[in-house]
Amino acid sequence: QGQLVESGGGLVQAGGSLRLSCAASIRPFGTYAMGWFRQAPGKEREFVAAISWIGRTTDYADSVKGRFTISRDNAKNTVYLQMNSAKPEDTALYYCAADRVYSTIRGGTSVAYWGKGTPVTVSS
Fold first, then answer.
1. Is 32 exposed, middle or buried (0-12, 13-18, 19+ CB in 10 A)?
2. What is the rounded CA–CA span in Å between residue 58 and residue 49?
3. What span, in angstroms and rounded, lies between the C-alpha atoms of 95 and 7?
C-alpha cells in the first residue's frame, strides 16, 4: 500500500522561507498528480497547490500564488512545496496528496492517498 510522508515543517518568521518535502512510496510515481493542502486550527482543509504527472501543469490557491512553488522530482519520488514570503496566516498542518486524476487533486475530495501532515508555524 502506498504511503506519503511529509517533512520540512517547522517554525519560520514572517517573510521567511521554508521547503516542504513529500516522499512517496506509490508506484509508478510519475503517473500520479500530486498536491499540497493545509488545515489551520478550527478551519477546514483547503487546497494549496497541485502539479501534474511530469510537472507541466501547476495550480495554486489565490492566497499563495506568487509566494509558493510546487515542484516534483520523479527520479526521487518526491514532491516539494517551496514557501517564500511566509505570512502568519500560512500557519497550518500541511498535507501531501496523490491521485491519478489531476482534477481530483484540484478538488480535494476522494483523493487516493494522503499523508499525515507536517506542521508549519509562521510567527509575526
1. buried
2. 7
3. 10
Q: How far is residue 44 from each of residues 9, 15, 41, 110, measured CA to CA in Å?
A: 19, 25, 8, 16
DSSP string, 57-119: -EEE-TTTTTTEEEEEETTTTEEEEEE-S--GGG-EEEEEEEES-HHHHHHTSS-SEE---EE
Note the residue count of the chain: 124
* Position 103, amino acid: S
pLDDT digits (tens, 9 = 90+) for 13-23: 999 999 999 99
Q: Which of 89, 98, 42, 91 is nearest to 70 (CA)?
A: 98
pLDDT digits (tens, 9 = 90+) for 61-111: 999 999 999 999 999 999 999 999 999 999 999 999 999 999 999 988 899
Residue 106's φ and ψ, nearest 5 degrees, are -60, -35
